[in-house]
Amino acid sequence: MQKKKKSASTIFRRPVLIAAAVVVLIGIAGSAFLVKQRSDDNKQAVASKDDDKVRPIGSVDYGPPDPHDNDATNDSKGSQDGPDTLDGFPSDSSGKPSVTVTRADADNSSKTLSVAVLVDGVASGDCTLTASMNGASSLTRTSSVTAENNTASCGVFTIPYADFSANGKWKISVSVTSNGKTGSGDWPQTIQITK
Predict the structure, then answer these.
(1) Which of 5, 92, 104, 139 has the fewest CB atoms within 10 Å of its CB?
(2) Is a pLDDT exceeding 50 seen at residue 83?
(3) Looking at residue 143, which CATH number applies to its domain?
(4) Residue 48: other Cβ atoms inside 10 A
């Protein structure tokens, strides 16, 4: 009797199946190791400083806070000296208010100019808007800084075109004075006023 020759595909199929089985076994062993490791990590516990309760690492304590948990924060809040500011600190090292003209809108249909201003570093003070143009009389308006919801502003200045002394391109500047210090800001473009 003659022995049958094994085909080439059968010869190569067996090592491939063995290699695949080894890879699957390594994957299963690795997964089991990670699951065991994670379970061991969760079993480690930390005792609470106030009582003998034990909770797993990484868990969140939703219980009421300890009365002294915020002592350091409250102490630092109480020790702030300086100007009357929203967050207890001036907006720059000089203590001057930081002024940003956020909007300057010339509405030709209603013939009014609206200028909005935000202020950082102070919660009170005086705002002065100045509109200027070469060869014309300057226009000045005033308001007070108002603070609401951690934001301070000069509000919105609304100026009728009729209040401007001439037609042309006007420069808009706003200054804020608080606690004897003044900061200022400008609208970056000139505003065309045509009465």
Answers:
(1) 5
(2) no
(3) 2.60.40.10
(4) 12
Residue 49 pLDDT greater than 70, yes or no: no
Provide the residue range defining the domain that includes 16: 9-44
Tally the domains of the chain: 2
**Mind listing the pLDDT tens digit for each residue in 138-159?**
999 999 999 988 889 999 999 9
Residue with tokens 């009357």: 84
Q: pTM value? A: 0.54
- Whether residue 186 is found in the same domain as residue 116: yes
Let me know if residue 39 belongs to a domain.
yes
Whole-angstrom distance, CA of residue 140 vs CA of residue 136: 13
The span from the CA of 130 to the CA of 141, in Å, is: 7
Does residue 188 fall inside a structural domain? Answer: yes
158 backbone dihedrals φ, ψ, rounded to 5°: -120, 115
